[in-house]
TrEMBL record:
The keyword Ligase does not apply. InterPro entries: AfsR-DnrI-RedD_regulator, BTAD, OmpR/PhoB-type_DNA-bd, Sig_transdc_resp-reg_C-effctor, TPR-like_helical_dom_sf, WH-like_DNA-bd_sf. Residues 1-91 form the OmpR/PhoB-type domain. This is SARP family transcriptional regulator. It holds the Pfam family Trans_reg_C. The keyword Translocase does not apply. It comes from Amycolatopsis bullii.
Length: 244
C-alpha cells in the first residue's frame, strides 16, 4: 500500500487500485494517523482537527463512521486500529514523506562523505516525490500545522541538491534553478550563497558580486541585519576569483 501526502492526499491499495477516500473529513483523519507514524492519535485530537472547535452532538458516531469508511476504502480493515482512547494506523506500506526524509538524509550523508554526484541523485529523487502543495484537500488546522515544516524540508533538500551539483562540476546546470530559487526566496542566505558559487564556477564573478549586493540591501531594508558568515564568505570568494 502506498500513501502520498506530498501533494493531494492519495492512497494506492495493495491491489494497485486508488482508494476512494471521500471528502475532507475522512482525508483529514487519515492524514493525522499517517503523520503520527504508528502512534495513537487521541479522539480529542481527531475531533479538534475535524471540527475545529464546532463539536457536533453526534461527534462520536461520526468519527466511527469515518473510520469505518476508511477501513473499507483501504481494503485492509485491520490496518486502522482502535487503541487507548484513539486510533492508530498499523505500520505497513510506504509513505512518500518518509521516503523523502530517508532520501534527503542519505543525500546529506553523501555530501559529508565528499560524494556530491551521488548526493545530487538522491536529492533529485527526493524532490521528484513532490506533486504539489503538501496535504492538499485536508482540513486547514492540520494542513497549516504541517505545511510549513514540510516546505522547509523541501527547500533544504533543494539547497542540498544545488550544493551537490555545484560541487560535482554541474554548476551550469545549477545556475538557472539557483536563480529561480533566490527570486522566489530572496531572504534565504544559503540559497544566495549557492547561486554566487554557481556563478563563480561559471566564470561570472561580477554577476556573483552583484547577487551579494542585492541580498545585502534586502537584508538591511527588510530585516535590518547584515549578511551572515556564509554569505560573506561567498562574497569574499567571488572577490578573490575576479580577474586582475
Amino acid at each position: 500500500m502506498e500513501f502520498r501526502i506530498l501533494g493531494p492526499l492519495a492512497v494506492s491499495r495493495a491491489d494497485g487500485r486508488p482508494a476512494a477516500l471521500g471528502g475532507c473529513k475522512p482525508r483529514t483523519l487519515l492524514a493525522a494517523l499517517l503523520l503520527a507514524r504508528g502512534r495513537v492519535v487521541p479522539d480529542e485530537r481527531l475531533i479538534s482537527l475535524l471540527w475545529d472547535g464546532e463539536r457536533p452532538s453526534t461527534v462520536d458516531a461520526q468519527v466511527c463512521t469515518y473510520v469505518s469508511r476508511l477501513r473499507k476504502a483501504l481494503g485492509c480493515p485491520a490496518r486502522l486500529v482502535r487503541s487507548g482512547g484513539g486510533y492508530l494506523l498499523a505500520p505497513g506500506g510506504t509513505v512518500d514523506a518518509e521516503e523523502f526524509e530517508r532520501l534527503t538524509a542519505s543525500g546529506h550523508d553523501e555530501l559529508r562523505a565528499d560524494r556530491p554526484a551521488r548526493a545530487a541523485g538522491l536529492f533529485r529523487a527526493a524532490l521528484e516525490l513532490w506533486r504539489g502543495p503538501v496535504l492538499a484537500g485536508v482540513a486547514e488546522p492540520l494542513r497549516a500545522g504541517e505545511a510549513a515544516r514540510f516546505d522547509e524540508l523541501r527547500l533544504t533538500a533543494l539547497e542540498g541538491r544545488l550544493e551537490a551539483e555545484i560541487t560535482s562540476g554541474e554548476h551550469l546546470r545549477a545556475v538557472p534553478d539557483a536563480t529561480a530559487f533566490v527570486l522566489e526566496h530572496p531572504m534565504r542566505e544559503r540559497a544566495r550563497a549557492l547561486l554566487m558559487a554557481a556563478l563563480c564556477a561559471s566564470g561570472r564573478t561580477a554577476d556573483a558580486v552583484a547577487v551579494y549586493h542585492r541580498g545585502r540591501r534586502l537584508l538591511d531594508e527588510r530585516l535590518g541585519i547584515a549578511p551572515g558568515p556564509a554569505l560573506r564568505a561567498a562574497y569574499q570568494r567571488a572577490l578573490d576569483a575576479q580577474p586582475g
